[in-house]
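Figure caption, in words: inputs first, then the predicted bound structure.
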Amino acid sequence: MGPLSTRGFHHITMVSTDASRTLAFYQDLLGLALVKKTVNFDDPGAYHLYFSDRSGEPGTILTFFEWPRSRRGSWGVGGVHHLALGTSDEKTQLLWKRRLTDAGVHVSGPLDRGYFKSLYFTDPDGQILEIATRGPGYAVDEPADALGTALVSPPAERLPEGRDEGAIEALTHPDPVPEVTEEMRLDGIHHISALTDDLTQAGEFLEGALGLSLVKRTFNQDDGKTKHYFWARYDGREVAPHSAFTLFDWAGSTHCARPGAGQTHHIAFRARDDEEQEAWRDHLLGLGIDVTPVLDRTYFRSLYFRAPDGLLMEIASDGPGFAVDEAPSELGRSLKLPDWLEEKRPQIERTLVPLAAR
Ligand SMILES: [Fe+2]
Ligand SMILES: [Fe+2]
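Bound structure (fe (ii) ion present):
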């Protein structure tokens, strides 16, 4: 087997203080499908909800631990700044802006980021979310077969002083958008952006440990100065979907992320199967990285480790998937527990507050 290289994200796990409110936001407003209702296997009194674009495929999965008493966290070094979900184009993006705004969600953008256009808002716990267009992609300012080789300065019109903020704010779809139409469906993790205090060390880790490639070296377009680098699964021709991880360079900063509600708990990258999962463990241990044993999470197998700046990461196997304990047409309908928690089902069901139907 050659050097290991992840195919991209498997899932992202965030912290909610109210599972019913999270369900209403991600299912009813954002149109994602609840594909699994279970408990945190390490804390069975807490819900663990899984959402996806309905496919349940790696790269489309958002999960939430419900910790009602969790204090609000805050972003910083060693944490995720925001999660971007994909939409097909600028038209569907404006449909989203109108739908979210009408629901009372404050939305900013769309901002032209060059490689895609971006809308920003937060979920009810404060997690920063983005809806990003699929294109035009990373080859707009350097050749598709040489991504990441140049340090690219964004043009003036994409920086704050070059934008027409009034026109951006006013731009929206003219009519209400009461339903999430098929063309609007969000298609999973577009990218995840985090903060690091050591971009060089972080890059060596992403490339050496995870096998990702540097595909863009540029600057934060909201200040024009902070370095903003993008890594992804890249074969020298194309960047794979659901694989872009970006880092803002907060060199030497001690402003660290504080875990809690509205923050990302961890991000998971893909392993092809159980055999590759074992190879990942050996590979990471061989690099001197502290790695947990492989744990059975029913829907996939997992191992956990930390990036040098502190971000908790996971390698999760593609299989066996969410249909392992309920029919594909029934995903998310009933509370599923692993065999070893089934005997505690009565206590667990008494502890969990039923999710409010809407
Ligand atoms: Fe972003
Ligand atoms: Fe996970």
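Helices lie at 19-29, 90-102, 165-170, 199-208, 274-286, 339-342, 345-351.
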